[in-house]
Design brief:
Elements: H1 3-18, E1 42-46, E2 51-56, E3 61-66, E4 76-78, E5 82-88, E6 91-96, E7 101-104, E8 112-113, E9 125-128, E10 133-137, H2 139-145, E11 164-168, E12 173-178, E13 188-194, E14 197-203, E15 209-215, E16 226-227, E17 233-241, E18 244-251, E19 258-262, E20 274-277, E21 279-281, E22 292-299, E23 302-308, E24 313-320, E25 329-330, H3 331-335, H4 339-366, E26 381-383, H5 386-408, H6 412-424, H7 428-431, H8 435-458, H9 463-468, E27 470-474, H10 482-490, H11 492-495, H12 506-509, H13 516-521, E28 523-528, H14 530-545
Antiparallel strand pairs: 1-2, 2-3, 3-4, 5-6, 6-7, 7-8, 9-10, 10-11, 11-12, 13-14, 14-15, 15-16, 17-18, 18-19, 19-20, 21-24, 22-23, 23-24, 24-25, 26-28, 27-28
Helix pairs in contact: 5-8, 8-10
């Protein structure tokens, strides 16, 4: 089959794949059903620089993400019900309802399946480090993991056994230690990390909050339980705020929440490192009833706390012994996906599909011959190899994308990861409504296009083409006209949109190695070939020496 035939078959298929709906096990379609006020199916998870809100529904979960300087995005849909989750670096490590663990990356790429626990067990609690996860599981699960018994406890005396701490290094689960006997009968228990130590915090039947810790790997015993000061508690939340592990206590008698922070060193024997502090809260909207706090995490030196009220669910921020810099957020406004953003996304998708259709019609109805017919090569020149064209493009384009990132204070590596997700992942249409990313990529494309247009109009070549020894010619082998230069450069505004990257295959599939702009401008890129120049010079000398008849 000819190159033209391959192109005619491959390009439409690739475009259809780019627009295909997400597959099962990766992402789910958007669900506009609002969350119920005060619903337990809301998760809040955070690190110092990232904050996630997860709306968990019957068969899907949608996660909304923000940073200290950006609002919540439109949300990343998963097609499973998440029941347990923890930050893992800049990713999310989750357990779905069926017990399958996954790692979801911040950029919205496909989920990475992880090793399932015996019996597809969902941990009682878990916490993530930089590259490892720690989990609390029933004793029987730990026995099954290291071959000591079945998944379920085998002896009646083991039914109230304290849970076991496991560690997962993204390859294998391993048993670290059984929990202390003081955990027997605990009403609530959570696991945390601080100062290279594993900590357990639990609520006793009497309403006391106790804690114990031990080194991560060594076989040292758990420290004796330490009781945090304060009145009897109904529940508590364990979070890391401003790099300090913090316990947010909810009193039994509807009192005000209290906070204890881990200020001292756990390495000093007998040092009671927990200190109480005064909580400062972000303001509640006027007319809102007293909230009931349902979840908490740490974010940007704050505690981010879900607050359920009769009027709706809020995300309230608190700090210990410091002024609050964040404002209370209406969760309903975040989860409902504002209509204006929804309309922008729909309009973007519609315009993109129309442009794709127009390009395909124009390419195969009016410029089909460019795939088959050879161009007229200028004397001494051959078609530029793909590697030379790519190198010239990188030399010309990268400075503009880096400059735009510096102007908008976007790390170049993060911007490129998000851009790749936009171009190649099923969530690409949703990422397209990220105003910061659109502005960065728009500035990069427009700056590069204007530069290339001016340089080719004035000198005929960009800096990248000069360094790689390439030049633009008309398909007739002559210098391109003014109109051809304008067309081939303005087409860059379309070609560099992520949905149109598939047309980059034209450089490989077309006979004359033309990109989309070259096809419609009737131009090609060539590089001087020494062999052709030498042959041409020899032909000229032979004709001069040949005697006339």
């Amino acid at each position: 089959m000819t190159a033209a035939g391959r192109a005619l078959l491959i390009l439409p298929c690739l475009i259809l794949l780019a627009a295909a709906p997400p597959a099962r096990g990766q992402t789910a379609p958007a669900d506009s059903t609002p969350a119920v006020a005060g619903s337990p199916d809301l998760l809040v998870l955070g690190t110092r620089d990232l904050l996630w809100i997860a709306r968990v529904q019957q068969r899907s979960t949608r996660v909304f993400l923000r940073t200290p300087t950006t609002p919540f995005d439109l949300g990343r849909p998963f097609d499973d019900r998440v029941v347990r989750a923890t930050p893992l670096g800049s990713d999310l490590f989750v357990f779905n309802e069926d017990g399958s663990p996954y790692r979801y990356q911040q950029t919205g790429l496909d989920p990475i399946p992880e090793r399932i626990l015996p019996g597809a067990t969902i941990p009682l609690d878990l916490v993530g480090g930089d590259q490892e996860v720690y989990a609390l599981v029933p004793r029987g699960v730990a026995d099954a993991l290291d071959g000591r018994g079945d998944v379920a406890p085998t002896r009646p005396s083991d039914e109230d056994a304290p849970p076991t701490v496991l560690r997962y290094d993204l390859r294998e689960w391993e048993v670290l230690a059984d929990g202390p006997d003081a955990l027997r009968g605990a009403r609530q228990v959570q696991i945390g990390l601080a100062q290279d130590r594993i900590l357990l915090v639990w609520l006793t039947p009497a309403g006391e909050i106790q804690t114990s810790h031990r080194p991560r790997i060594t076989d040292a015993e758990w420290t004796p339980p330490f009781t945090l000061a304060g009145p009897p508690a109904r529940r508590f939340f364990l979070a890391s705020a401003d790099k300090l592990l913090t316990v947010l206590t909810i009193p039994e008698r509807n009192g005000e929440p209290a906070a204890s922070r881990l200020l001292g060193s756990l390495r000093v024997e007998g040092n009671q490192a927990w200190r109480s502090g005064t909580l400062e809260w972000s303001d509640l909207p006027e007319g809102v009833s007293k909230p009931a706090y349902t979840a908490a995490t740490g974010f940007n030196q704050h505690l981010a706390v879900l607050a359920a009220t009769a009027e709706g669910t809020l995300l309230r921020f608190a700090r210990v012994d410091a002024a609050v810099a964040e404002e209370t957020v209406d969760i309903e406004a975040v989860l409902s996906e504002p209509a204006a953003q929804h309309m922008t996304q729909r309009l973007f998708v519609t315009v993109t599909l129309l442009l794709l259709l127009a390009v395909l019609v124009g390419l195969f109805a009016f410029r089909r011959e460019s795939m088959v017919q050879p161009v007229v090569l200028a004397p001494g020149y051959g078609l530029a190899p793909v590697s030379s064209r790519l190198l010239a493009w990188l030399i010309d384009f990268v400075p503009f994308s880096v400059a735009a990132g510096v102007m908008l204070e976007i790390p170049f590596s993060m911007a490129m990861r998000t851009l790749m997700a936009w171009g190649f992942s099923p969530e690409q249409n949703e990422l397209a409504t990220n105003e910061t990313m659109l502005l960065w990529w728009g500035l990069s494309i427009c700056g590069f296009t204007l530069y290339a247009l001016i340089m080719e109009l004035i000198t005929g070549r960009t800096v990248g083409k000069v360094l790689t020894g390439t030049r633009v010619f008309s398909e007739r082998g002559t210098a391109p006209t003014l109109g051809q230069i304008v067309v081939r450069n303005l087409m860059r505004l379309l070609e560099l949109l992520p949905h149109f990257w598939v047309f980059g295959l034209l450089v490989v599939l077309s006979r004359n190695q033309q990109r989309l702009g070259d096809v419609f401008a009737r131009t090609y890129v060539a590089r001087r070939t020494p062999l052709l120049v030498m042959i041409d010079e020899e032909d000229d000398s032979d004709s001069d020496d040949k005697p006339s008849e």
